[in-house]
Amino acid sequence: MIEAAAYTVIAPDVQSADGCRVWAFTVIGSGVVMGARCVVGSHSYIGRETVMGDDVRIQSLVFLPNRTRLGARVFIGPGVVMTDDKHPRVNHPDYDAQPPIIDDDVSIGAGAVILPGIHLYAGCMVGAGAIVTHDVPAGETWAGLPAKRLHRWPTPPIGGGWLTRTRGTP
């Protein structure tokens, strides 16, 4: 069941587990599947047939294209834009949608841009304002324009990492 704020548009066929919350002025497209305890901030757009794992946190002003895949415990900061079209043109006859794939325990900082077909592997982090033009390997931190590796974690924080529940939260 989704707890939705006023002025939210949620397609009638959206599937959600318990504890999901969607804030005002957000659009969630047809065929979206939301895991348990997902939260979507205000003024966000979640494209058709997007799939989210459990405990996903999407902040305000986020754009996810159709068929985006988000693993469990993904954090997407405010103003993040993900794209799926390498050659955007109106009515392009060779349009080939390539939505991003975001694995478990990924964190994406505010204002980052994820280009088409990018795979963010488990436990990686993307810095605020980064333009991600290449896949980001598991356990690495990337930032910059274009994003480049800053740090490699010896053991990626998988299975809850930084996003474990605290202080009796559900």
Report on the structure:
The protein has 170 residues and is mainly β. It has one domain: Hexapeptide repeat proteins (UDP N-Acetylglucosamine Acyltransferase, domain 1), CATH 2.160.10.10. The chain is built from no helices and 22 strands. It has strands at residues 2-4, 9-10, 15-16, 20-22, 27-28, 33-34, 39-40, 45-46, 51-52, 57-58, 63-64, 69-70, 75-76, 81-82, 101-102, 107-108, 113-114, 119-120, 125-126, 131-132, 140-143, 148-152. The strands form four sheets. The protein has a nine-stranded mixed beta sheet with strand order 1-4-7-10-13-16-19-21-22, with no helix packed on it. Strands 3-6-9-12-15-18 form a six-stranded parallel beta sheet, with no helix packed on it. The mean pLDDT is 92.
Indicate the low-confidence ranges by residue numbers: none
Helix content: under 10%
Report how far the terminal alpha carbons are from each other.
15 Å
CATH class assignment: Mainly Beta
Total count of domains: 1
Q: CATH homologous superfamily?
A: Hexapeptide repeat proteins
Arithmetic mean of pLDDT: 92
Count of alpha/pi helices:
0
Count of strand segments = 22
Q: How are helices and strands ordered from N to C? A: EEEEEEEEEEEEEEEEEEEEEE
Report Rg.
Answer: 16 Å
The description of the largest β-sheet is: 9 strands, mixed
CATH architecture: 3 Solenoid
Q: What general form does the structure show?
A: globular
The share of residues in extended strands comes to 25-35%
Structural class: mainly beta
Strand order across the biggest sheet?
Answer: 1-4-7-10-13-16-19-21-22
CATH topology: UDP N-Acetylglucosamine Acyltransferase, domain 1
